[in-house]
Amino acid sequence: METTTLEPTAPVKLTAKDFTSDQEIKWCPGCGDYSILKQVQTVLPDFVVEKEKVVFVSGIGCSSRFPYYMNTYGIHSIHGRAPAIATGVKAANPELNVWVISGDGDLMSIGGNHLIHVLRRNPNIKLMMFNNEIYGLTKGQYSPTSQRGVVTKSTPFGSLDEPFNPAELALGAKSTFFARTLDRDPKHMQAIIHRANAHKGTSFVEVYQNCPVFNDGVFFVYTEKETKKEECLWLENGKPLVFGQTENKGIKLDGFKPVVVELGDGVSKDDLWVHDESDKIKASILAQFANYKGDEHKPRPFGVFYKEERSCIEDDMSAQIDYAFEKKGRVPLNKILSGDKTWTIV
Amino acid sequence: MDTTLETKQSRVTTTVNSESIVVRFSGDSGDGMQLTGMQFTDTSALLGKDISTFPEYPAEIRAPAGTLAGVSGFQVHFGSKEIFTPGDFYDVIVCMNAAALKTDLERLKKHGVVIANVSGFDSKNMKLAGYPEGSTNPLEDGTLDGYKVYRVDVSKLTKEALKESGLGMKEIERSKNMFVLGLLFWMFDNSMEFTIKSLEEKFGKKPDILAANLKVLKAGWNYGDTTEVFTTRYKTTAAQLTPGVYRNISGNQALSIGILAAAEKAGLPIFLGSYPITPASDVLHDLSKFKSNGVKTFQAEDEIAAICSAIGAAYTGSLGVTSTSGPGVALKSEAMSLAMIFEIPLLICDIQRGGPSTGLPTKTEQADLMMAMYGRHGESPLPIIAANSPADCFDAVYEAVKISIEHMVPVIFLSDGYIANGAEPWRFPTEDQLAPINATFLTENNNPGGKLLPYKRDANGVRPWIKPGTKGLEHRIGGLEKQEDTGNVSYDSKNHERMVHLRAAKVEKIADFIPLIKPDSGPTKGKMCVLGWGSTYGAIKTALLELNQEGYKDIAHVHVRHMNPFPKNLGELLHSYEKVLVPEMNTGQLILLVRAKYLVPAVGLNKVQGQPFTTEEVKTKIVELYNS
After folding, report:
1. Band of residue A4 on the pLDDT scale cut at 50, 70, 90
2. Coil, strand, or helix at residue A232?
3. Among A53, B474, B540, B593, which has the highest number of CB atoms less than 10 A from its own CB?
C-alpha cells in the first residue's frame, strides 16, 4: 500500500495588491503621499507573511488617511495621539507588527509629547513622519517644521517660530533609530523601510514629502536633477561622506565641526568622515547639517543617521510579568477578594 | 450609654458602654496618625464592630511641621450598631500638637474627650499653629472647660521607654504614635494582639525597630492601666452584622479588586493606562502589584496618552482601563469620544475631587456628573455607574466592566475622594458568586460571501469585537463617521444622523439589562423621598434611620447607581412621592437631570465645602421640607 506524505505548503508570498484596500484614495493629485503608499505596499510583502498581524495607526492630517488605504488592520485616531495608541496596541499584544503614519503637525506639534515619550520607551514600532513643512488638511497654515519667515494663511507677515529639526529632536529624545528619506526617491525609500523594519525598537523615519497645493517645491532642491547632487548627502554605513555633481566633494571633521572639502589636490576619500551609524555624537553633528546657513551651508543628509540596540518596553513589560509570576505565582481570585486579613461574624 | 464601676488595684475606673464612638487622630503629616488610625480600625473590625473611616490628608506632602496646613487626620467611627458614615462629630480627639487641637476642637462633641500630647503645645508649636504671640496654652487656660482633657507627654514618655534601646532620636520620635495607640487600646478595652502581629510582620527583618515599637505600644497601654489619671474606659460590643466572612476595604482598593475580578471572569487580560492624580493614584499602585496575574500597567506621559494607550490595548482585545480624577477626565474627553465612535469596551474611572481646576485635590465633591453625562464634543452619550460606599466600589465597577464588554461601549465609573479613601467592613463574595461576563470575539466573516461588516449590530445594537491578528478579518476603524454596517468612511448626512441615533440607542438599550429601581428604605409612594447618588448614601441612610426612630416613618430613600441610562422606572417612582429632596455635593446636577427628564418638582440640598454631608445637615433639611 502506498503512503503519501503531506508536505506543509509554504505560504504564498503576498503582493502589493494584497495590501491595497478597496477604498478610493482621496489625496490631491500629485501629492507625495501616493508614492509613500506605493513604496510601503511594495515593500511589505518582502517581510510580512501574515498581514492580519499588521496594524497601521495614524492620527489626524492628510498623511493619517493612510490606514484606510492599507488592507491590514488599522486605526485612524485623533490628532497627535497615534504614538500613544500604538504603544498600547504593541504593549498589549507584542506579536503585532505596528506602524504609525503621521505628519509634521500631528507628530511634532499636537503630538509632540507622545513623540518624545514613545522614542524613549522604544516599543518595536515603525514610525513614519511625512514632513511637508505645512498643515495640509486644514488648508495651509505653517507647521512646527516650517522655516522661519514663511508666509502662510496664518502668517501673512511671515512665521516667527524657530522650526524643529526632527533629527535633533529624535536624538535628544533617545531615539534608537533615525533615518530620513524622500517621496521622490522610491528606491531609497524602499531601502529605508527595509532598514526600519529590520531594527528592533522604535524606528523613526522622516520622509520629505511634497505638498503640491500648499507648499509646492519646498524640498525640490533635494529631489530635482539640477540641484540634488549638490544638496543631498547619501549616508551609507562605513562609507565616506561624499557628494557633489561628480562626487567631487566630501565632509571632513575638524574636531566637532564638519567642513566641506573638494576632493583631489591632496584631499582623498581616506581623509573624509566615515559614516558610523552607531556613533551618537557623529549622528548629532549630522543632525545639525540642516541648521547651517549661508557660508556654512551643508548638504542635507539622507539615510540612517543613527541606530542603537536597546530593550523595548513591551518586552520589558512581559519580562517583568514573567518574573513576578515565577516569584509569586498567580494570585487566585478568591485570595484577591479576601485579602490577608479577614474575620468571621456568626 | 450605660455605666458600670469597677474597682481595680484600689482605684475606680468607670466603664461606659456605648453604641458607637467616633475617634479622630490628628497630628503632623509625619506623626504617623494615618498608620495609628488604621491599626486601631483593623483591631476594631477584627473584634466584630462595624466601622467606617475617613482619612484626611493635607494637599502638601510635608507641609511645615506644626502648622495648620500640616495637620493630617484619621477619623474612625466604630460601634455595635450598623454604621454608614465616619461620623459627624467626634467623641474623642487625639491631638499631637496645638494645630491639631485648633483644627478638630470645632467638631468635638460636648463633654468629649481630648487626649493631648503636651510637648506639642510648647510656645513654638503654639506659634506655628497660628496662636498670637503671648497666647495662653489652650490646655491650661480654660478653653477646654467642659471637656474631659488628658494631658500626656507622649514625646517624653516614649523617650523614657526607649532610653536603653540604643535607637537614635529620629527613630525614637517616630515611635510615639505607638504610645498613643497602646493608650487608646487600653481606653477602648481593645486587644493589642492584632497590632502586635502586624508589627511583627512589618518589622520582622528589623528586630531593634520591632522591639522598640512593641515596647512603646505596651508602655502606652500600661500608662492607661496604672496611672490614676485615666478613670474612664469605653466599651462597645460587636455589631449585629450579617453573618459571613469580612475584610476591611477602602473604595479605591475595592475598585482595583473589582477590575481584577471582572477581567478574570471575562477571561481578558488587563491593561491600565494611567497618569498619577489625587485621589485616583491608588488604583495605579494597587493594580501594579498584580503583575504576577499578567496585569499590564502603564504610567503614561499624560492623561491623554493614558487613555489612548488603554484604547490601543482594548482594540487588541484587552480590558482597557484608565483611572483619573476630574481634571484628567477633562483632558481625556476627546479620546473618550473616539472610543465611543469606535464602539470598543473601555473603563474610565473618575474619582471625583473638589474642583474646578486643581481646586481641592484632597477633598471630596460630586461635581463631575454633568461632565460625565455631557462633557464631550458631538453626540456621545456613555453609560455611567456611580458607587455609593467604599465596598460598593467593587460591585459598581464590576457592573461597569460587564456593561462595557457586553455592549461594546466605554463606561464611566464615578466615585469620589470620600469613599475612595474611606473604608468599611466588606462581606466579600467568592469567585463563584460573581455574575458571568461574556466577552466574545468575532473569528470569521459575519457576512458570508461578502465583505466583513465590522459595524453590523445585533438585536441590542452591539457590534462585534474583532481582534487584530484574526486572519481574514482585516478592517479599519477610525474617528471619521462610518457607514452603517461596513464601517467605511461616510460623509452622507442621513447616514450620520442614523449613526448618531444608533449609537445612542445602544446606550439607551442598556436600561433593559439593569434592575428596576426600588427604595433603599421606606415606602414606594407617599409623602416624601430623598433621592441620592454616589457617596451621599451613608449620610442619607443614617439620617433616615434616625428620623424613623424619631417618628418620621413615611420617608423613602431612593439611591441611583445607574446614572446613564437611568433605571426605566425612575421617573414613575419619583412621581409617586409628593416631595423629592436631592442632596448632592455640588450645586445641583442630578436634580437638573431628573427635573429635565421627568419634570419632577424636586428640591435640592447642596454642599460644596470639600466635605461630605453630616447626618445632621441632611436631617434638618428633610424635616424642613417634610413640614413645609
Report:
1. low
2. strand
3. B540
**Number of neighbours of residue A99 by Cβ within 10 angstroms:** 27
Cell 476595604 belongs to residue: B249
What's the gap in Å between the CA of A163 and the closest CA on chain B? 23
Same domain membership, residue A97 and residue A76 = yes
DSSP states of A240-260: B-EESTTS-EEEEEETTEEEE
* Residues B37/B74, Cβ–Cβ less than 8 Å: yes
Q: CB–CB of B558/B519 below 8 Å?
A: yes
Residue A230 has pLDDT above 60, yes or no: yes
CB contact under 8 A, B244 and A81: no
Mean pLDDT calculated for residue range B333-353: 98
**B272 or B7, higher pLDDT:** B272
Strand intervals (E) in B50-202: 50-56, 71-79, 90-95, 108-117, 148-152
- Of A235-249, B223-237, B567-581, minimum mean pLDDT range: B223-237
Domain check: are B323 and B383 in the same one? yes
Contact indicator for A78, B479 with CB cutoff of 8 Å: yes
Closest partner CB to A339 (pick from B247, B310, B472): B247
Residue of A nearest to B308 (CA): A85
Chain B nearest-CA residue for A119: B301
Does residue B433 sit at the A interface (CB-CB below 8 Å)?
no
| CATH classification of the domain holding B93 | 3.40.920.10
How many Å lie between the alpha carbon of B409 and the closest alpha carbon of chain A?
17
**Beta partners for residue A74, in sequence order:** A56, B476
Reading the block at residue A241, the C-alpha cell is: 561622506
Q: Which of A138, A145, A154 is nearest to A213 (CA)?
A: A138
Measured between beta carbons, which residues in chain A are less than 8 angstroms from residue B296?
Answer: 91-92, 317, 321
Q: Does B412 touch chain A (CB under 8 A)?
A: no
Out of A67, A84, A345, the one facing B241 most closely (by C-beta) is A345
Contact B560, B600 (CB under 8 A): no
- The predicted complex's ipTM stands at 0.96
* Predicted local distance difference test score (pLDDT) of residue B59: 75
Give me the pLDDT at residue A37, please. 98
Cβ within 8 Å, pair A77-B308? yes
Instruction: Name which residue leads in pLDDT, A10 or B624.
Output: B624
The answer to whether position B272 is within a domain reads yes
Q: Which three cell numbers stand for residue B207?
A: 528586630
Q: Specify if B409 maps to a domain.
A: yes
Q: Which residue has the cell 441620592?
A: B532
Full domain range(s) for residue A244: 240-274
- Is the pLDDT reported for residue A112 higher than 60? yes
Look at A6-15, B248-257, B401-410 and tell me which has the smallest mean pLDDT: A6-15
What whole-number distance in Å separates Cα of residue B261 and Cα of residue B257? 6
Name the H helices within A210-312: 220-223, 225-231, 280-288
pLDDT at A213 > cutoff 80: yes
Domain, as residue range, for B573: 526-627
pLDDT at B2 over 70: no
Concatenated DSSP letters for A311-322? --HHHHHHHHHH
Considering chain A, what is the average pLDDT of its residues? 96
Across the interface, of A23, A89, A336, the residue whose CB is closest to B488 is A23
Listed by number, the residues of chain B in 468-527 with a beta carbon closer than 8 Å to a beta carbon of chain A are 468-480, 488-489
Lowest mean pLDDT among A129-133, A166-170, B110-114: B110-114
HSE on the CB side for B273, CA within 13 Å? 32
Residues A158 and A304 in one domain: yes
Looking at the structure, do residues B176 and B220 belong to the same domain, yes or no? yes
Would you state the pLDDT for residue A302? 98
pLDDT digits (tens, 9 = 90+) for A266-279: 999 999 999 999 99
Q: Say if residue A47 is in the same domain as residue A127.
A: yes
The domain tally of chain A equals 2
Beta bridge partners of B489: B482
Chain B stretch 311-350, residues whose beta carbon is closer than 8 A to a beta carbon of chain A: 311-318, 320, 334-335, 338
